[in-house]
Amino acid sequence: MIAALIIVFREVFEAGLIIGIVLAVTRTVKHRNQWIAGGVLAGVLAACVVAAFAGVLSNLFAGMGQEVFNAAILSLAVVMLTWHNVWMARHGKELAGELWAAGKAVVEGSKSLLALAIVVGVAVLREGSEVVLFLYGVLAGGSDSGLSVALGGLAGLILGALVCMLTYFGLVKIPTRALFTTTTVLIALLAAGMAAQAAAFLEKANWLTALDNVVWDSGWLLSDSSLLGKALHTLIGYTDQPTAMQLVVYLAILAVTFVLMRLYGAPAKTVTSAPAE
Amino acid sequence: MSFSRTLPRLTVFAAMALVSIAAAGAARAQSATEIQLSYKDKKFDPAEISAPANTPIVIKLKNLDSKAMEFESKTLKVEKVVAGSSDATINVRAQKAGRYEFFDEYNEKVARGALVVK
């Protein structure tokens, strides 16, 4: 039971952190719960599909299907997160004000929610398919430990939900004004970290061979498989043995986010009848 | 207004990045050491494999069990789900000499093995 708890918790931990951040980011947005719940549900369903076709997926791209698939969905999440940041840079003010209720804002807002729902879905999908495979293997095994494993899995899931809630309540404690900056930075780092992870998957698939030298090894200081290391891995993309390419990708995403936020996020003064706060 | 153009632009950017990455990856460098490994009844066979240092390693893993397993090694930075009764290819980057443990994440206590790099 404890083994099942640990395995499931390890997998849902990352998704818990990400969902907690997304919940905090969207806390004032109407209908956000439906979108995020939809993202989670879609992620779970997709995880089941991926688990069912794990063998087929693996065999794609000369046995590198899993790596390429992971890199692809991570890239999708990176695009969505970056886009969200850029969008928020432009519309953040309206979102805080009354204008948000206006029809147009709701339509635009749902686009941003869709982007974040996709991020949530991707987070759930990535780790979820492994949980599904693990639990299925145990349950299909028909051993008498089936029930205890299921209980352990459930406990792991609850712990993951707890991580999500702690993240959320920790973030919403931050005063509204500072929260916007905090979440912008968090999301940029999250996106950069995911991009670096995507690069790591492509390196494993041998699709990416340039700059694949390991720049440093800080495993002695903080292993990225420890709990803190894993949390930092999810949040800011910490890796104890990053390759030069991972660092380049990481910094590039941060730079792109910054530039796009400057370019598109700039003055939103043209918005009709936006009351100055 | 212009934000609706942002998404397509970002997507194009990502697509371009992926294409250039794929092109770079097409040119595969050093030749790798290939190692055969099989997995049955929660055991790796052989339980210890070896490879020369500073050369990329390719592990060809056959999962003979009907259940899926997850080949994982923290030190080798590898994590790969292998479906029941199927094969998987695991690329490991060139390593320094040392002993690197791996295991089936779903049966971490019993299903363990090691790669010795000399």
The succession of helices and strands of chain B, N to C, reads HEEEEEEEEE
Distance between termini of chain A?
55 Å
Number of continuous helical runs of chain A:
9
Shape of chain A: globular
Give the quaternary arrangement of the chains.
Answer: heterodimer
Helical amount of chain A = over 70%
Which structural class fits the helix and strand makeup of chain A? mainly alpha
CATH class of the largest domain in chain B: Mainly Beta
**Rg of chain B computed from alpha carbons, rounded to a whole number of angstroms:** 19 Å
CATH topology grouping of the largest domain in chain B: Immunoglobulin-like
The count of β-strands of chain A is 0
Total strands of chain B: the figure is 9
Tally of contiguous helical segments of chain B:
1
Mean residue pLDDT of chain B: 83
Radius of gyration of chain A: 20 Å
Characterize the overall form of chain B.
globular
Summary tags:
heterodimer; A: 277 residues; mainly alpha; disordered C terminus; B: 118 residues; alpha+beta; Immunoglobulin-like; 2 domains; five-stranded mixed beta sheet; four-stranded mixed beta sheet; 1 helix
Give an overview of the whole structure.
The complex is a heterodimer of chains A (277) and B (118). With 277 residues, chain A is an all-alpha fold. Helices cover 77% and strands 0% of the residues of chain A. Chain A has nine helices and no strands. In chain A, 47% of the residues are buried. By secondary structure, chain B is of the alpha+beta class. Chain B folds into two domains: 1-31; 33-117, Cupredoxins -  blue copper proteins (Immunoglobulin-like, Sandwich), CATH 2.60.40.420. Chain B has a five-stranded mixed β-sheet with strand order 3-9-8-5-6, with no helix packed on it. A four-stranded mixed β-sheet of chain B has the order 2-1-4-7, with no helix packed on it. Chain B is globular, with a radius of gyration of 19 Å. Mean pLDDT of chain B is 83; it is low at 25-29. Chains A and B meet through helix 3, helix 4, helix 5, helix 7 and helix 9 of A and helix 1, strand 6 and strand 7 of B.
